[in-house]
Amino acid sequence: MTTTTARPEIDQEHWQQRLEELAAKHEVPGATLAVLRLGPDGPDGDELVEAATGVLNKSTGVEATPDSVFQIGSITKVWTATLVMQLVDEGLLDLDTPLVEVLPGLQLADEEVARQVTMRHLLNHTSGIDGDVFTDTGRGDDTLERYVAALTDVAQNHPLGATFSYCNSGFSLAGRVVEVLTGKTWDAALRERVIEPLGLTSTSTLPEEAILHRVAVGHIKPEEDQESHVAPVWMLPRSLGPAGLVNATARDVTAFARMHLSEGRAPDGTAVLSPSSTAAMQAHSTDLPDRFSLGDSWGLGWIRFDWQGERLYGHDGTTFGQNAFLRVLPSQGIAVAMLTNGGQPRDLFADLYSEVFTELAGIRVAESLEPPTEAPEVELSRYVGTYERSSITTEVFERDGGLVMRVIPTGSIAEESGATVEELALHPIEQGLFATRAPESETWMAVVFYTLDNGAEYLHYGVRANPRKV
């Protein structure tokens, strides 16, 4: 990491004002921001600027403050990956040893995958286990054990290691490995091994812990012309803990990132993770079929980003009406966390993070894919069909000379969250690559059609591989 010796202080009042203005522009009810920049001579020289705007709950009007706790969603996965890498440091786990050596009774829909899947497959999302399985196995301490037992009924989305597909299920499985090797619940292991050593007093994993703080609730907007309202469900089932149940302030999220910026050390010098494991988490592990919508590659837990030739890592999180964003620029010791509870948070992220990183580091958020002014000639009929995985059915069809993608949420989470069917126009970029965006969003997302070596056809959208129904 390199730092400069003469640099202006981060202007808290300016970023407070910009957060307020941009959150209002993008109809985000409440948001908090934390910007951390490491000092050139150790923790005493660190700069931390915080801001907050709006309300935590439109029904109660409770104001958002820097001390407010939000759900950080899938940023949790990096915390779970940190736990896993601690076990690697201790010699209790090998990333490339089949998991059946730790979980002898592991049963999956594909018996060969059950025999061969490794922790590396889980951390870089290449296991092929269908990822959006939100089975509620209760609030008891055996919830992950029961969840893993139920994976025997979960379809294999793609062959082991054949492609990338974002996998919540794999992180619940990883959390169960943590439990077996530590003899503690995932929640207790995370608290004792990460949360407490870092002094994160506002971070928790259970609702009865979160309620002791100033807590945000999510807001959803089922229809375009409706006002957003409080989401009917607050939290995912406990069985999804290792994939997305950490609650924290933006300050605590940057404190976690600080440890990763500091070769695994807490501010007091405590070694939370070894330098080698810290580096391995940030290093390239697998590429993404869609290099345009999020990052260009994945590490072990971390998403990797290329912004104008600068390498960043980070993660996003999405739960019921809440979205979280973390980006880390190691070359300049900068970490930025933003937590939100509704509206158009990705548009807010694109605007605000571009300003923050331009001001502090001279770089901006990578430009999103956009359709060209003149649409290229591409063959459309080859992509028409139904693509299906757990929780989502996607129908692609032709209409008025173009392609339309109908996204149909299914399963218990769709029912609980109030998710609705969405139709998105696909704008061609080149053969196999299209751009789309939701009606009220400014941010474009890529849709990629591709074929595996075994001839199976997939639609890749929202960092998930959706297999085509035969």
TrEMBL record:
Domain (Beta-lactamase-related): residue spans on this chain: 16-350
Tree of life domain: Bacteria
Stored SUPFAM superfamilies: beta-lactamase/transpeptidase-like (SSF56601)
InterPro entries: AmpC-like, Beta-lactam-related, Beta-lactam/transpept-like
Designated name of the protein: CubicO group peptidase (Beta-lactamase class C family)
Species of origin: Modestobacter marinus
